[in-house]
Amino acid sequence: MGYPNLEMTRLTSFMSDKKPIILVTNDDDITAKGISVLAEAMQELGEVIVIAPDRPQSGQGHAITINHPIRIKKARFLKMLR
């Protein structure tokens, strides 16, 4: 039998020392003004990772990508973000 309150205290202390990872995404594209404004505003709260398409993809959330692979490449459109 453990001490749940002690374990929860340790976990809470560990979590409060770390900043969260914040994912910012959209379906407009990586150069849309809104995504850069949001990502910049979130910098104070944690580590920001931006994932967005290279061109507008509105409505593609309902698409099926069986025949077209999804490719990912790292880009640095915003200096302060990875």
List the SSEs and their pairings:
Elements (H helix, E strand, L loop, with lengths): L3 H13 L4 E5 L7 H10 L4 E5 L31
Parallel strand pairs: 1-2
Describe the structure.
The chain has 2 helices and 2 strands; from the N terminus they run αβαβ. It is α+β, with helices and mostly antiparallel strands and about 80 residues long. The chain has one domain (about 20-80). β1 (about 20-25), α2 and β2 form a beta-alpha-beta unit. The radius of gyration is 18 Å and the shape is extended. The model has no long low-confidence stretch (mean pLDDT about 75).
How far apart are the termini?
44 Å
How would the global form be characterised? extended
Mean pLDDT, to the nearest integer, reads 76
Spatially, the strands of the biggest sheet line up as 1-2
Name the beta content range. 5-15%
Structural classification: alpha+beta
List the keywords.
single chain, 82 residues, alpha+beta, two-stranded parallel ribbon, 2 strands
Brief rundown of the structure:
The chain has 82 residues and is α+β, with helices and mostly antiparallel strands. It has helices spanning 4-16, 33-42, and strands at 21-25, 47-51. Strands 1-2 form a two-stranded parallel sheet.
